[in-house]
Amino acid sequence: MPDETGTPDAPVSPASTASPLEQAVLRALESVIDPEIRKPITELDMVDRVVERENGLVEVGIRLTIVGCPASDRIERDVRQAAESVAGAGNAAVELSVMTPEQRAALTERLRGGRAARTNPFGPGSLTRVIAVTSGKGGVGKSTVTANLAVALAARGLAVGLVDADVHGFSIPGLLGLVDDDGLAARPTRVDEMILPPVAHGVKVISIGMFVEPAAPGGRASSTAVAWRGPMLHRTLSQFLTDVYFGDLDVLLVDLPPGTGDVAISLGQLLPNAEVVVVTTPQAAAADVAERSGVVARQTGQRIVGVVENMAALVQPDGTLLELFGSGGGALVAERLSAGAGGGEPVPLLASVPLSMALRQGGDMGVPVVVASPDDPAARAIEQVAAQLSAMPRSLAGRRLDVSVR
Ligand SMILES: Nc1ncnc2c1ncn2[C@@H]1O[C@H](COP(=O)(O)OP(=O)(O)O)[C@@H](O)[C@H]1O
Ligand SMILES: [Mg+2]
Question: Is 311 a pocket residue for ligand 1 (Cβ < 6 Å)?
Answer without folding.
Answer: yes
